[in-house]
Predict the structure.
Amino acid sequence: MGSRRTFIKNGCALCGALAIGIPAMNFLQACKTGSGVMHADLYQNKIVIPAITLADKSVQVIRSKGLEYDILLVKENEKKYHALLMKCTHQSNPLIATQTGLYCNLHGSRFDLNGNVVEEPATRPLEKYTVTIENENIIIHI
């Protein structure tokens, strides 16, 4: 009798763990940008980053003490970049970056890597910053 009870108890525990664990793993995988967060200084409304930083990446999260929200630097090609303010246009929640876009974990808004709304409740695109390249540096103009 004890072994049947143990079997059922362990079976229920396993099912519960799988029910929670598998969706959690998918969520964590979706959050991964593979790029980490790079800290950079804001000076005279500019953030300067060495171009080599994005040599083998398509996106990079930039954090500056001078800004309330992070910036997502997106590499379009070797000579063209753009930057997005990681602030949801629905209710100003910080966004989470992935390799394919950004999303708001508060109400589910999603944006593509160009800042366009992919899924509401947000209806306005993300704020976009001009990016230039000078002397092997990427300059984000805030």
